[in-house]
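Sequence and structure are no longer studied apart. To make this concrete, we show below a single chain and its fold as tokens.
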Amino acid sequence: MTVAPPARINLIAVIFATTAALIGRAWLQLVLLADGLPKDYAADLSYLVVPPILIILLAPVLNKDMAFLVKQFRYPGISLSIVFKAVLIGLLLRIASWANLITGVSFGLYRSEDPFAIEGPQFAFHCASPHVVILGFVVMAVMVPVIEEVTHRAYIQSAFRDRGPFIAISVSAIIFAIFHPPANWAFTFFAGLVLGSQYWYSGSLWPSLISHATVNGLVQVDWRCLNIQWNPRATELPVLSSGIPALLVLLMSIYAIFVLVKKRRGG
């Protein structure tokens, strides 16, 4: 039986509800920060209000689109190979992000404005308290990917499916980026294109959801445990010994992602 995609009016309701939920989360985060909670912990704890807000605001929409949403998570052909490729794409996205950062620092594109910033490079690995780390993974590697994939792929991308893959994936990626901090727009837009392509060619949310969860899980390791400080002097730029290898890694990561997505398309 063919299940029709959500109506366009439902898409508007989803975007409105998502915006309202994130505003509520931002308000609660400010309250928790004022109470003295650490920044990252307050950010994760405040996100717990997002799912109930969305469920309350979108109850009529979710009820009407239940058959469509259930179909997005039905994937009889899912296999260990598909899961492995999705995890690998997520890993490559994180590698590309790191390579982009190192390239930008090496060529002076990214630099701290603090005149007393540590030049480095200095590396430290020390994780936060277990409950902070666990909450971070639950929120960022489970809750956020599910909510964002349903919102940006199942609803937004599906609403433009009749316009073809270029328009549908691009619009979804643009809105996906807008819902993130401006400093991350470039990478988030690229990630949105990758996740959107996975969803388009698989017809299921599982590949993009697994890749999204992998990226966010790796980001948690960076945020909670890894501390790197490197601000080379302006007179030392460009640092070709790190910039050129990082640029090559960035290009190879993008190419590998393209190959994996194309291979999935061929399947």
The chain has a mean pLDDT of 89. Strands lie at 122-125, 226-229.
